[in-house]
Amino acid sequence: MAPTERSMRVRIRLIGAIFVVFFLAVAARAGYLQLVMAEDLRERGDQQQQRVIKLTPQRGAIYDRTGEELALSLEVKSLYANPAEIKNPELVRAQLAKVLDVSSKQLQQKLTAKKRFVWLERRLSPEVAEQVADLKLAGLHFVREHKRYYPRGQVAAQVVGFTGLDPKGLEGIELQYDSDLQGEAGLLISERDARGRGLATAEQHIRGGGPGGSLFLTIDRTLQYIAEKELARQVKASRAIGGTVVMIEPASGRVLAMASQPSYNPNATNRYQPGDWRNRSVSDSFEPGSIFKPFLLAAALEEGLLSPNSKIDCENGRFKVGGKTIRDHKGYGQLNLHEILKYSSNIGLAKIGKKLEREKLYSYLRDFGFGEKTGVDLPGEENGTLHAPERWFEIDLAAISFGQGVSVTALQMAAAMGAIANGGMLMEPYLVEKIVDGEGTQIYQRQPSAVRRVVAETTANLVREMMIGVTEPGGTGTKGAVVGYRVAGKTGTAQKVDPVTGGYSVDKTVSSFIGMVPAENPALLLLVTIDEPQDQSYGGLIAAPVFSRIAADSLRYLDIPPTEAVAKAELPEQHLSSKPAQVRTITPGAPEDKELSQMPDFAGMSYRQVLEAMGSNGLNIKLTGSGKVVEQSPRAGEVIRYGAKIWVRFGA
């Protein structure tokens, strides 16, 4: 075969091979685009043909344990403009500037923008939306979005938290359960041409979107209100810088109330300092002082080192340890364990701590949960401080024995004392009882969780019995007593560390009282702390009365019957009433110097207007029906009494 013919055949085969490879590549590419990239390309095509604006998703609601709303998302209107449809931007700007909370300069820039869509103001109040609609200006449009609203105002504010404009949770439960509450964002869609211009004939519509899950908390709105009211009252009266109240159900670990002062209104967070948003019950730690002493007694009894009747020489009020002098507020001689706790002897506890020694005491304190987070479902929880025993000097062992040199959070202390109330079993505190999805289907149910057994039931019962003496005549916590019930409690007055000198401050203290009631079978456990009270600082004088008032009101609200017979003459003055079943009047939202409030006139109001009035007045009202208010009870102007049924009915 001639060379020319052979080379020709090679060329033909080469060209054929190239065509085959090219054909296979094209076929493979076509298959890839049609089979693999089809969905992505379809979305790209839609994006080129449509303008898509992401709307605010509807977050799920947050309820208290009785089903009362603590947070919800209201449907509101947002305003946007299509500048291409506006013939006279200056006229529109002048009219809108009178209504919207937007500067005239910003409005001018938006109304003359080379765009087909600009937000003017989102999530308008119903009144403002109505005013804008009445203007009937061409080029202005509304779309429905959702706005977070807290109908109870300040009640449980630091627990519930709040959201940003996104809306994403920024504090509290809103932050901790953000992914559960967050709904699916709807999309505002409008058609546009190949150059990206809006089509005049195209209609805008909303696609997708759905509500998030809703949470049911262990918090009881009424108990929370009682705690907040009494705490705020004492913080103000004692001119303190703050305070906390934690109320738990010791048998389960449910947190029934958690109050902090100062507080804030989550509907208007910009009016408050960021420090007011802080949930001090989990984020702030303090030296507990004498409320720490029952744990030392529990450890000594559990180890069998002492019996309740064991005598300790309290050295007549002065005792040297490691070169330092420990003092009692009064000189005592021989005291048994009941008396040591009742009179709160530092010297007696220091000697008991010496019997336990470092390793054993540290082990028990860790078992009670000190030095680690409780695991509560809230953000920002602190560990507290409990140094390893190898770092303790002799004076450290003594100081820790009566509550100095160790720091705790309020919730940590309440949870630990819950083990004494609960027969020696430490329970994990929690706030969310259940979660339901956007369709109302329950997807989560929390069950009480035991962390560990710390001491035997007999030991816990012995300590609880000793704590009863604290509130009986001669004890340091008599003002923590509750008429008709036995209270097991403990007072505390702890000096604060001076950040400048590093030593203990001479005038700054944390006053506290922790107690459980009824003592025989505790249904409630409360811790009250008052931070830096003025004039008086003893926990028995400052914090114990707050405990008494909160416990008394809470027991009545929960219908827990008295465990002891009560003569009328024994009732404190504030408890005397012509109606024994309603011995004190509590009015949510009422000024502190008033005990009664009047029912507003809701006639003709919309559902949203009633909710806003409820929030501003702190009222808890049952709402039924739809439309405008047609009936209410009590009638407008009538006095609202705590415990009375308050309702509003809507109709066409």
Question: How would you characterize this protein structure?
Answer:
There is one protein chain. This protein has 652 residues and is α+β, with helices and mostly antiparallel strands. It has four domains: 3-36; 52-194 and 204-216, Penicillin-binding protein 2a (Domain 2); 221-582, Beta-lactamase (3-Layer(aba) Sandwich), CATH 3.40.710; 597-651, Trypsin Inhibitor V, Chain A (2-Layer Sandwich). 32% of the residues lie in helices and 23% in strands. The protein contains 20 helices and 28 strands. Strands 2, 3, 4, 5, 8, 18 and 19 form a seven-stranded mixed β-sheet that branches. The N and C termini lie far apart (102 Å). Mean pLDDT is 85; it is low at 193-203 and 571-596.
Low-confidence stretches: 193-203, 571-596
Quickly give the CATH architecture of the largest domain: 3-Layer(aba) Sandwich
Task: Compute the number of helices.
Answer: 20
Beta fraction of the residues?
15-25%
- CATH hierarchy class name of the largest domain: Alpha Beta
Question: How many distinct beta strands?
Answer: 28
> What is the global morphology?
globular
Can you summarize this structure?
The chain is 32% helix and 23% strand.
Features:
single chain; 652 residues; alpha+beta; Penicillin-binding protein 2a (Domain 2); Beta-lactamase; 4 domains; 7-stranded mixed sheet; 5-stranded antiparallel sheet; 23% strand; globular
